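Hi W.,

Here's what went into the run:
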Amino acid sequence: MAITKAEIVDMLFEKMGLNKREAKSIVEAFFDEIRSNLAKGEEVKLSGFGNFTLREKNPRPGRNPKTGVEITITARRVVTFHASQKLKAYVNGSDAAT
Amino acid sequence: MTKSELIKNICLEYPQLSSRDVEMATRLILEYLSDALADDERIEIRGFGSFSMHVRPAKLGRNPKTGEPVMVPEKRVPHFKAGKELREQVDWAADGLQGATGS
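Here's what came out:
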């Protein structure tokens, strides 16, 4: 089972003793704030975790994988996430038994 | 926006919360997400996106200087995929028009 906002709310409730409503407000504000900054075209840098950056994609040819029909994929702006060195090391730490 | 600006903005939005609480909560959220990824758990935040772990298998590489073959160990990379809402809000070009690709 994937982790969702509900689990994060529970975690804050347990670890901080915030009431559920406050915990929910913070969790929602956390993701809304990141999202609205990216929507404004601003990158988001969370030290120790990673950076959300924006990339401008040029139009490029593509095709519908189902039908094989060629179409042009329009120019667009997309979000990419780059994990920080710290997070990368952390997720590789436990079982990098090589 | 940096982490400290994020904390400041959440505080502005919820003046009833203490800045100490918001700061601690932000740290705990990021730690929790990091721990989940380290445990190979998927994270799904509706409207925002999902984080999952991508595993790059160990492979035989070469030292580019000497040409000597070396084993490159397995690498785990956190991956983020933007959710529909985030994707649409960020893409200035797609103002309610068709999104050509899924993936």
